[in-house]
Write a structure and sequence with these properties.
The protein is mainly alpha-helical. The chain has 4 helices and no strands. It has helices at residues 3-9, 12-25, 35-49, 58-68.
């Protein structure tokens, strides 16, 4: 049996746990990001840590999306 068939026989919660285990097994070095992407992520993290980020609630996002449709 192929692994894909085995995975498809799993419940949704089992598959989610499997994905989480796979994700957790990756090291930071395994995720190859370009320098500009790394810089942007560092910038966003810095903004978050220094409480300079502005966040929208899910309702606010829905309202904004409704305006563009």
């Amino acid at each position: 049996m192929h692994i894909k068939e085995e995975i498809l026989k799993m419940s949704n919660s089992q598959r989610i746990l499997l994905v989480q285990e796979i994700w957790d097994s990756l090291s930071e070095e395994a995720i190859d990001l370009s320098d500009p992407i790394k810089n942007e992520l560092d910038h966003r993290l810095d903004m978050h840590n220094n409480k300079k980020m502005e966040y929208l609630s899910l309702d606010q996002v829905r309202e904004e999306l409704a305006k563009t449709r």
